[in-house]
Amino acid sequence: MALLIPPAVVKELAALPKADRKRLLDALDVVAAEPTKRFAFVTPLVGQAGVFRVRKGDWRAVFHIEHGDVILDRVRHRREVYR
Predict the structure, then answer these.
(1) Residue 82 has pLDDT above 80, yes or no
(2) Residue 30 CB: number of other CB atoms within 10 A?
(3) Which of 5, 8, 20, 37 is the most buried (most CB within 10 A)?
């Protein structure tokens, strides 16, 4: 049960403002601690089975859960994340 962040996503996180990055990572850490629990701030994406998103301000983090690990797929601004 860990939060796994691929190198490409680390670059996306580095581009975020520090406060927004901290809020997203804090929320993802909560999910990673209990990946089977349902959280109000986690929304499943329609049309993509097993893919979820966390919304904090103008930023979105899209992730999936594999073998109990939360794997971050992308972190982008709200206008760009679903394209």
Answers:
(1) no
(2) 16
(3) 5
Contact residues for 70 (Cβ-Cβ < 8 A; gap 6+):
1, 2, 3, 4, 28, 31, 32, 35, 63, 64
Distance CA 16, CA 24 (A): 10
pLDDT of 80 reads 79
Q: Which CATH architecture has domain 3-77?
A: 2-Layer Sandwich (3.30)
> For residue range 15-52, what is the model confidence (pLDDT) as tens digits?
999 999 999 999 999 999 999 899 999 999 998 888 99
The per-residue pLDDT for 17 is: 92
Q: Across-strand partners of 60? A: 55, 76
Q: Does the pLDDT at position 81 exceed 80?
A: no
> Could you tell me which of 61, 52, 51 has the C-alpha nearest to residue 26?
61
Q: Which of 41, 44, 23 lies closest to 31 in space, CA to CA?
A: 41
